[in-house]
Structures are given as C-alpha cells and as structure tokens.
Design goal:
By secondary structure, this protein is of the alpha+beta class. It has 2 domains: 39 residues; 90 residues, Lrp/AsnC effector binding domain/regulation of amino acid metabolism (RAM) domain (Alpha-Beta Plaits). The chain has 6 helices and 6 strands. A hairpin with a 2-residue loop joins strand 5 and strand 6. The protein is flat. It starts with a helix and ends in a 12-residue tail after the last strand. This is Lrp/AsnC family transcriptional regulator. Pfam families: AsnC_trans_reg, HTH_24. GO terms for molecular function: sequence-specific DNA binding.
Length: 158
C-alpha cells in the first residue's frame, strides 16, 4: 500500500485523503496513519508546489552546475556535498556518474548572481577541482509535468 500512496501523492500532493482512500480501497484513517508514519520515517521528505515562474512574471535563473571534486580522506563525497548543500542558494545536490562528481542546482535573480555564487563560493572550496555551469533556458517538462504550451488543434470539426 505504501508504494501506491507514494505514487499518488508524488503526482499530486494535494489529493484529497478521502479520494485516495477510495482509490486504494481502505478507510481514510488508514491512509492518514500511513502518511504520518512515512513522514516520521523521512520517506516523505516534504511537499512542494511546482511553479511556472515565467508565467508568474517573476525573473528567475536556474543553473545546473557540474562539479568535479577530490573527496577528503576518510570522509568521501558526503562531507563535500554537505558543505555545498548548506549554502542557502543551493536547491539540490546529487552525486552523479560520468565526468563530474556532483550536479548542483541553484536559482538566482540574474545570470550574474548565479555566476558570482559559482566563482565566489563554490569554486574556491578546497576540494573543488572544476565546475561547469549550464543555465536552463526553457523548461519543457519538470517533475513529470509538461510546462510547455500545448499546440492548439485548429482543425475545423465536422
């Protein structure tokens, strides 16, 4: 049942508990108790709202920064990741495979603000060997949701 609950709330965290209980074939209290347990166990880590900032008219720049590091002896990548994710500008940090070690996402008001974070705070860290900044120019799909305008069918119905 946990996997089914997680699948539903991952797509829509605002789903009505009564509706979710009906879909799962259990009572509302069971669903509520299971959600509370998963929150306590940190299986559910938070509830987020996906916002199209362009449509909101608010300027935001998002960057994906690839970071190559030298892990510290006896601490591995975890300590380096902790130093990076403790910056308030950082939205996420992932350990990745390939040519770089981490993928870091940050948001800022301008390209300069993001670039300054990389050059002033991220690059100077002792264990950082190199960075590569990729700016998101347009979001087509985010967290499973299509963000791009869907083309309208302009055919005439017969």
């Amino acid at each position: 049942m946990r996997e089914k609950i997680l699948t539903f709330i991952e797509k829509n965290s605002r789903i009505d508990l009564k509706e979710l209980a009906i879909v799962l074939g259990v009572d509302e209290t069971t669903v509520m108790n299971e959600l509370e347990k998963m929150e306590e166990e940190h299986i559910i880590c938070g509830y987020h709202t996906l916002i199209d900032w362009d449509k909101a008219g608010i300027e935001k720049v998002t960057a994906l920064i690839e970071v190559r590091v030298t892990p510290q002896r006896g601490m591995g990548f975890d300590k380096v990741a902790e130093r990076i994710y403790n910056y308030p500008e950082v939205n996420s940090v992932y350990l990745i495979s390939g040519g770089f070690d981490f993928m870091v996402t940050i948001e800022g008001k301008t390209l300069r603000e993001v670039s300054q974070f990389v050059s002033d705070k991220l690059s100077p860290l002792d264990s950082v060997l190199s960075t590569k900044t990729n700016f998101i120019l347009k979001k087509y799909k985010d967290h499973g949701t299509v963000m791009a305008e869907q083309p309208k069918d302009e055919r005439i119905e017969m």
